[in-house]
Design brief:
By secondary structure, the chain is α+β, with helices and mostly antiparallel strands. Helices cover 43% and strands 25% of the residues. It contains 16 helices and 17 strands. Strands 6, 9, 10, 11, 13, 14 and 15 form a seven-stranded antiparallel sheet that branches. Strands 3-2-1-4-5 form a five-stranded parallel sheet. A hairpin with a 2-residue loop joins strand 7 and strand 8. Helix 1 packs antiparallel against helix 2. Pfam families: PrmA (PF06325).
């Protein structure tokens, strides 16, 4: 602070001049006067934000940050200072520092929707989508009805929750099959049986178990937004007393902390369209080792990948490339994905073989090795083989199975998969196509080896 009346008058005059120049748009002249006011210690907390704003406006990023830091040294909880530092860090490519500054701003001013929204954007851009969703929801609570924030919440929720959840929940055949298996398990083990639901999603299978009489169901869900929704849905349906949902992967559950003792029944629907992508084998092995009783009932107890050899010009255009605009681009096909999700009843393809089992997984087993074996596929029709269309057959309990066979499955969350070959293969009826099939515990392996022509087989015979 100025020490004398004269110094106070001088500082006040400088401040008035600076403000007039700023109002007139002459920031270049206003800036040195604001600096002098700060140097004289006059109304520093009020003047520093103005000076920092001018410095930032003319691109003097480091000086602006120094001004905001000076302000924070005087007032560590100055929400605007933290917020503006966050924006500067964001503009200059320092996302982690931006997030830290914006978090401090939100703590200093919990009622500021702009700070909450900006923090949410930064978290989203940094890939921290769960935290971003929480901040967008907080911003919406502060600004109810804000369409922009509502849009971001819906967009992020869609990113966190794969599209197939809704059609899968509406899949009546799947639901009925799982419920039949769950009812049979509860009837066998009794209402005191402890049920473990891995990857609960909406909580549907847990509620089926509770409705069947299970008094203790422990569920887990790794995606926080989905776990929170499951708790709400379970409460809406009156099963909160019977079901506990943990926001964690099953590999982090512990006996004595999340479960009183090992479970009598495991129910889990983490099968993917190509069977194993959601780490089914790792998850079930861990559950057998740590979370289930030796004689636990496992639902599903087995799953198989079934497929047939197909020809499809439509699918070929998605996975192969040759001549384009007079250029040879065939090499680019080496970069194509080895699999392509398809809707069996909506995609134009033609069978070249009968249905064959590619891989089968016994989920009641305690351990699984990766697998690779030779499969001989009898060709039934002439054509150009694009690959193998694959679907699932799931064994849930005695007499209870489910599949998404493409000839009759139209309404579920599971799609079929095309395991496309590296290049098209010309085949004829009577040929045998040798294919290496198996899995690496996470993905299916489908690789053509050679074609044994019908004429050659006839000669051998």
């Amino acid at each position: 602070m100025p020490d004398t009346a004269h110094e106070i008058v001088s500082a006040r005059t400088l401040l008035q001049e600076a403000m007039q120049l700023q109002e007139a748009g002459n920031l270049a002249a206003a800036e040195p006067r604001y600096r002098m006011v700060v140097e004289q210690g006059y109304r520093t907390i009020e003047v520093l934000p103005i000076l920092a704003g001018i410095l930032g406006h003319r691109g003097a990023t480091d000086e602006a940050l120094e001004a905001w830091d000076m302000l924070l040294a005087l007032d560590p909880d100055h929400a605007v200072a933290h917020h503006e530092k966050g924006l500067i860090y964001s503009r200059t490519g320092r996302p982690n520092e931006a997030i830290t500054a914006l978090q401090a701003s939100c703590i200093a001013d919990t009622a500021n929707p702009i700070a909450a929204n900006n923090l949410a954007v930064m978290l989203s851009d940094a890939g921290r989508k769960g935290e971003a969703l929480d901040q967008f929801r907080r911003a919406l609570a502060l600004q109810p009805g804000n369409i922009h924030i509502e849009h971001q919440i819906r967009r992020l929720s869609a990113d966190l929750v794969p599209f197939w959840h809704i059609p899968m929940l509406n899949d009546v055949r799947r639901n009925d099959a799982f419920e039949a298996a769950i009812r049979a398990a509860i009837a066998q083990a009794g209402p005191n049986a402890r049920v473990l639901d891995i990857g609960t999603g909406s909580g549907l299978l847990s509620m089926m178990a509770a409705r069947a009489g299970a008094q203790s169901v422990t569920a887990c869900e790794v995606v926080p937004a989905i776990a929170d929704m499951a708790r709400q849905i379970i409460a809406d349906n009156g099963y909160s007393d019977a079901i506990t949902v943990h926001t964690a992967p099953s590999t982090e559950l512990e006996i004595g902390e999340h479960l009183d003792e090992r479970a009598d029944i495991l129910v889990s629907e983490i099968l993917s369209s190509d069977l194993l992508t959601e780490h089914v084998i790792d998850t079930f092995e861990d559950a057998h080792a740590r979370l289930l009783k030796e004689d636990a009932i496992v639902i599903p107890r087995a799953a198989s990948a079934i497929g047939c050899l197909v020809e499809s010009p439509v699918l070929a255009d998605y996975v192969f490339v040759d001549q384009v605009s007079g250029f040879d681009l065939s090499r680019f096909g080496a970069l194509a994905s080895p699999k392509l999700p398809i809707h069996g009843t909506m995609t134009d393809w033609r069978r070249l073989s009968a249905d064959v089992e590619l891989v089968s997984i016994d989920l009641t087993r305690k351990a699984h090795a990766s697998d690779l074996h030779l499969l001989e596929i009898d060709v039934l029709a002439d054509g150009i083989a694009t690959g193998i269309v694959q679907w699932m057959h799931v064994d849930l309990a005695d007499g209870v199975t489910f599949d998404n066979h493409p000839d009759g499955y139209t309404d579920g969350g599971w799609l079929q998969m095309l395991h496309n070959f590296p290049e098209p293969i010309v085949v004829q009826a009577g040929d045998v196509l040798n294919v290496a099939v198996g899995h690496d515990r996470v993905t299916l392996i489908v690789r053509p080896l050679d074609v044994v022509a019908a004429a050659a087989q006839a000669q051998v015979a």
